[in-house]
Design brief:
This protein has 370 residues and is an alpha/beta fold. Helices cover 27% and strands 25% of the residues. The strands form three sheets. Strands 3, 5, 6, 8, 9, 16 and 17 form a seven-stranded mixed sheet that branches. A six-stranded parallel sheet has the order 12-11-10-13-14-15, with helices on both faces. Strands 4-1-2-7 form a four-stranded antiparallel sheet, with no helix packed on it. Strand 1 and strand 2 form a beta hairpin. The structure holds zinc ion (2 copies).
Length: 370
């Protein structure tokens, strides 16, 4: 079949809207009509090269849609099912999945490379060139073929244009607070960077019972939004926050610090550790450039004060549990997804959408295909 996609042909180029050819789903694969896709910063990282990727590529990894056709051997999904894609596929059988860490699934890790599980491609340009899809999803297109391990079925009444966010940013932010940071009732939490992931981290910290939630972002709009999501204090910079977090916590500092900046910066780590309490934990959720190997950090913090630094992918969540669970919290009015979507765009407006994101205008922009 033919469909429209935003194709990226090279580093730092614009997204090109093109008609592509899509093969039918093979064994274990699913054809999905995508209804909406979040515009995550990671797609921009692919464009700029902060995340390594091959070109051409159809990016987009935060999508929700409706199953149109399933390949042989797909037993859990049928045409008409509403699905959210988990950006790390979960096979349910590998050692990581079996131990309850499906965010580190071996099959998911393989599919991150952008080819289907048999090493071939379903997406092709007009001239026949194979086009890999980001994390084997490619949600910047009106249809896609994905592995069944990437799909989580959700209830039909959930709005797909909100549900898409749970495929990456919301679960990543939420889990960064609830799982990776392990925020406990009464904790004091710092969230650095209030984009889609930071906004979800603030909500996770709030729902986990944090006392003070300090949100740090240079943009006044983001600080205003942070308060809506549950921040109790907002600051424009780490420098501004450091003394005040210390004062508000009576010298203890923050139990948990969650880094959700657009791009991480290793030279900030020493200041981040300064804001962290004894036995406190710093969670590195944001991407750092793959080329960055230097970090400013006195490792004495780890020994003498038992401070910790941990990393997390997909918020250390399990997509088959967390995606339906977070949609239930949305349904119950406890998780605010509505305020996380600042602007909606058509596929043709994707370059504008990313310009808006880079200008700090969006918590999340969402592409809507109908
Ligand atoms: Zn993402
Ligand atoms: Zn697995």
């Amino acid at each position: 079949m033919e469909t429209q996609a935003a194709v990226l042909w090279g580093q730092n180029q614009d997204w090109q809207i093109e008609t592509i050819t899509l093969d039918p789903p093979k064994a274990g694969e699913v054809l999905v009509r995508i209804v909406a896709s979040g515009m995550c910063h990671s797609d921009e990282h692919v464009r700029t090269g902060d995340l390594p990727g091959l070109f051409p590529i159809i990016a987009g990894h935060e999508g929700a849609g409706i199953v149109e056709e399933v390949g042989s051997g797909v037993e859990d999904l049928k045409a008409g099912d509403h699905v959210v894609f988990g950006f790390v596929a979960a096979c349910g059988k590998c050692p990581s999945c079996a131990r309850g860490h499906s965010n580190l699934c071996d099959v998911g890790g393989m599919l991150l490379m952008g080819a289907q599980s048999d090493g071939t491609y379903r997406h092709h340009a007009a001239d026949g060139t194979d086009i890999p899809t980001m994390v084997c999803l490619g949600t910047f297109a009106k249809h896609t073929v994905v592995n069944q391990a990437s799909c989580v079925k959700i209830l039909d009444h959930y709005p797909l244009e909100k549900a898409c966010l749970v495929g990456c940013g919301v679960t990543t932010g939420w889990g960064s607070a609830v799982y990776a940071a392990d925020v406990r009732p009464g904790d004091d939490v710092v969230v650095i960077g209030v984009g889609g992931i930071g906004a979800a981290a603030i909500q996770g910290a709030r729902l986990a019972g944090a006392e003070h939630i300090f949100a740090i972002d240079p943009l006044p709009f983001k600080r205003e939004m942070a308060v809506k999501f549950g921040a109790t204090h907002t600051y424009a910079s780490i420098e501004e926050a450091t003394a005040l977090v210390n004062e508000v916590t009576w010298g203890k500092n923050a139990d948990k610090v969650i880094c959700t900046m657009g791009v991480g910066d290793g030279s900030l780590m020493e200041s981040i550790m300064t804001m962290t309490a004894k036995r406190g934990r710093v969670v590195v959720t944001n991407i750092h450039s793959v080329n960055e190997t230097e970090v400013s950090l006195s490792l004495t913090w780890l020994t003498l004060m038992e401070k910790q630094i941990v990393g997390t992918i997909f918020g250390s969540g399990n997509m088959r549990y967390d995606i339906p669970h977070l949609m239930k919290l949305y349904d119950l009015g406890q998780l605010d997804l509505d305020n996380m979507v600042t602007n909606n765009y058509k596929l043709e407006e994707i370059n504008q959408g990313y310009a808006d994101m880079l200008a700090g205008k969006n918590i999340r922009g969402v592409l809507r295909y109908e």
